[in-house]
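Internal ticket #5521
Category: modeling
Description: The requester needs a full-assembly model to guide mutagenesis choices. All entity lines are attached below as received. Residue total reported by intake: 862.
Assigned to: D.W.
Attached entities:
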Amino acid sequence: MNASFVLEVIVQGVLNGLVYGLMALGLSVIFGVVRVVNFAHGEFTVAAMYAAFLLFTWFGVDPFVAMVPIALAFFAIGYGLQVTLVHRFVGRAEHEQFILLVGLAIIIVNGTLLIFGADARPIRLSYGFDSFLVGPIIVDKVRLYAASAALAVAAALFLFFRFTRTGTAIRACADNLVGAAVVGLDVRRLYALTFGLGLACVGAAGALMETIADAKPELGPVYTLIAFIIVIVGGLGSMAGALIGGVLIGVSEALAGLFLAPSMKSMVSFALLILVLVLRPQGIMGRRV
Amino acid sequence: MTLLAVDQVTKRFRGLTAVDEVSFSVGAGDIFAIIGPNGAGKTTLFNMIAGVFAPDQGSIAFAGERIDGETPDAICRRGIGRTFQIVRPFPALSVEDNVVVGALLHRPKVDAAHAHAHDVLRRLDLYGKRDQLASALTLPDRKRLEVARALATDPKLLLLDEVMAGLRPAETDRMVAILRELNRDSGLTILLIEHVMRAVMALAARVLVLHHGTAIAKGAPEAVVRDQAVVESYLGAEAI
Amino acid sequence: MIGALNARGRVLLAALVAILLAAPLVADRYLVSVLILIFYFTFVGQAWNLMMGFAGQLSLGHALYVGLGGYVSALLWLKFGIGPWLGVFAAVAVACAFGAAIGWLGFRFGIGGVYFALLTIAFAEFTRIAFDHIDYAGAAGGLFLRVDDDGRWWNLRGGPLLFYYLALALAAGAVVLTAWLSRTRLGYQWLAIREDEAAARALGINAFRAKMTAVLISSAMTAVGGVFTAFYNNNLFPNRVFDINRSIELILAPVVGGLGTVFGPVVGAFILTPLGEALTALTDRLGINAPGVKAVFYGLALMTIIVLKPSGVWPWLARVLRLTERRPTEPRP
């Protein structure tokens, strides 16, 4: 094993990590603003992966294109979910909200199992095996595109929150809910919008994920856990934190897979989670509560 | 005999000095009030006595022993009970069970705790509502429940944080009467934060005035409310 | 808190116990196995209920203790010939050690709510992957107990009747334990902590100790369930026994039945398990290959209950059938 190989693995980890980061961004937005603990986050991601799979298999749509309609569809789903179900749980005991979403997660995981079966559903892109040569290392084209797309979506979201009126209103809700309501912001609508945006990220991330991994029902809980680890490690409420956390997890998983054993890669992530929770619960970029 | 001795206690929160070298002492059996405009540091002071956080400087002694820096539950076990400014009942439990939780501190047998809870509830005019859920109570009753619960822990010193806020004059008078009774009958020492001057004048033998974290006056209530600095702190210099 | 059973309720309970004691004499093998499942879920559900329903600490990684209990007792039997009645003590000790570690990390560092839940998930997943690689315990290939070994009941080698009455005893014991605990000082402390930990501490309650006790009791009980499951099913695979789906499975009965109540897990298990089995039987009969249909049903049940009747089926049932002592004001589910 030589240095350039290790470097390749690291780069792979970074690129994967950016896609993870986009997924986690959705969770950070939902958790950070609406304060909903979305235990179905990974399951929604897998659903998006299947959606990309279907669009490709039936209509030949490239997932980088399918990303857009899928994100839009998931926005609608998120908006609808918040308005119909989740808003009822806003004042209730914390555990009730968790259980609602755990129930939803179970339905999604097993629903996809019923519909698609347990086998992995990969996508075979025509340029799937192409790569770039950057210096001494080989970089997968698909992975690079996916990571770039993830960054683009994240950037768009950042611009939205920073520079639009609605985006600022949403940030106000996250900062000070009572204050926001007092100045006349329609909190319910903003919450729904935020949930929609969060799931839109998931939709986009899922479509991108399908290009670098294969859709399988059992990935649902795995991705949920990864999303939470990233958000906690990166820092709740920080968009940059979600991406940085994503990269960190992506790289540590890649290296763990290389130096330990492929099946042990998540162990490092868990160890990281435990460490962060104990030593620096606000994460890398989070503000101290 | 001095029950509580607060000596040069200071607390800073990242650049803001919430409490600045405050000293006072409360004798056993006294009723002592702390007043001052909002943001003066009164609840922060309480929180330090009750163990929610430790002072940055200074010391707090209870019955001759240092207690600053101890945990809230340890402080309660020593004999200091407290209420919260925004009441915190156990919503899913009945009124009786709320008080039983307090009573269990010194009466490990559940039956004995229930008996003591009944006594406390009667004192606080809550016996008739003992089977109601705490979440179903009106605000005045919640305030009484808050006091009853703390009282059930058999405290030597009771810290009351704005217990009269939101009560109508008749309810305030009733609460004052109850507290006076407790003080007289069992020698319970009471330290209260209050805005309702009606209650302060009726209860307190001595008053401490806080403003921007410092003690600006100390003494008998009649003297303190006429103090120039005190009036200025409430009304502003232009109003004088 | 709902009141204790009234005379009507107690008669009904006695009748139920009598029926369950006599059931194996008339029921077929399949029904007996379903009942065993119900008792098992009542038992582990009650263990989880103590920690969540009473002490308010959410664990979504309880399968960790099932797995540890199972593996420790199975390994002691397979490698050293130590029977489960002794092995259970080691199983409980190991589970408690893990529980203590999780509790210490969580409570000492103030990790609560969802973060604590994630901590429990992380521990369970970590252990699952670890066991996948521990060759001494069979790794991913699993551990197998020979069914015909010994034949002696004290080594839990026997027919369904043995396991039936054992499971019934465990479930009944769990209910009795919960009923007793809920009336002790510790039980009240747990409720206070669940409702408002800061207020509880202001009343002199040592929250750390009370919560830790809840975790230890809960993990110990769950480990016993693990021992049972190992010797009843005669096999253990890390991917099955430590799986997060198992963790979620065991919270279903207490949530649906009623968190923080004595009979919640019982009612929940009696509702969900037969329905789930019926669903599986139905799809088998119709020749449909539908893996996951039972789980979808469970997910729907969970969501329905939490939206419509969050305090569970048992409080509602108790009110409607008037099985508990009347209190002037009851919680509205």
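Resolution: model delivered.
Comment from assignee: The mean pLDDT of chain A is 89.
Ticket closed.
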